[in-house]
Automatic annotation (TrEMBL):
PANTHER family: DNA-BINDING TRANSCRIPTIONAL ACTIVATOR DEVR_DOSR. It comes from the Bacteria. GO terms for molecular function: DNA binding. SMART domains: HTH_LUXR, REC. The modification 4-aspartylphosphate is found at D56. This is DNA-binding response regulator. One of its GO terms (biological process) is regulation of DNA-templated transcription. Pfam families: GerE, Response_reg. Keywords: DNA-binding, Phosphoprotein, Transcription, Transcription regulation, Two-component regulatory system. Residues 136-201 form the HTH luxR-type domain.
Length: 213
């Protein structure tokens, strides 16, 4: 991990904490950006790279748990909470909402760094997953309207003859569309195409009929 391929955001209203955390992270070769309020963090321009958010619970403008809830439906860095007034209900709520850790001040530097590394690794994985889904969505958009009708029938397990009858086309035409779908979706096998359909959450409304030919 190099300092230019990630960033750690620090949101804490205590300047001494921000400075100490910044120095700690830099001593581990990590780049950090610090903010004294949730509002400053939310409105700041942020680089599109793997990140971690070290977030204090008690902030001057909003509670850290409330900020976690407000940004839950956005793409945001995994959160490591720090607080001088920790309690079990708050920590449970934070973890249930996806926080990587909940540390009470004064915390051990090693515990914080372990949580930060885990958060950045999690964000890298989430970004890779989003990138793959975006690529699959683009492949799907490249399909013709007819090919988009063929795809769910194929992954549902219908035989070519059954799928062709469903669409009112010949079996040969169905096979051509099926081959195009496989190629455009970059699917190496039917099982791979099924996995792709699941990733894209394509509705499957048909199932193979027992005894079909």
């Amino acid at each position: 991990m190099t300092a230019d391929d990630h960033i750690v955001f620090i949101v804490d209203d205590d300047a001494r904490i921000r400075e100490a955390l910044g120095e700690l992270l830099e001593s581990h070769g990590m780049h950090a950006a610090a903010f004294e309020s949730a509002g400053d963090y939310v409105t700041a321009d942020k680089p599109d790279i793997p990140a971690c958010l070290i977030l204090d619970i008690e902030l001057p403008d909003i509670n850290g748990l409330d900020l976690q809830r407000q940004i839950a439906d956005r793409d945001h860095p995994p959160i490591v909470f720090i607080t001088g007034h920790g309690d079990i209900p708050s920590s449970v709520r934070a973890i249930k909402r996806g926080a990587v850790d909940f540390l009470t001040k004064p915390f051990n530097d090693a515990d914080l760094m372990a949580a930060v590394h885990a958060a950045i690794a999690e964000d890298r994985e989430k970004r890779a997953d989003r990138a793959e889904r975006d690529k699959l969505r683009q492949h799907y958009l490249d399909l013709t309207p007819r090919e988009r009708e063929v795809l769910p029938l194929v992954v549902s397990g219908l035989l070519n003859k059954q799928a062709a009858a469903e669409l009112g086309i010949s079996e040969v035409t169905l096979q051509i569309h099926r081959r195009n779908v496989m190629q455009k979706m970059a699917a190496a096998s039917l099982a791979d195409l099924v996995r792709i359909a699941e990733r894209l959450e394509i509705p499957i409304t048909h199932s193979r009929r027992v005894g079909g030919n």
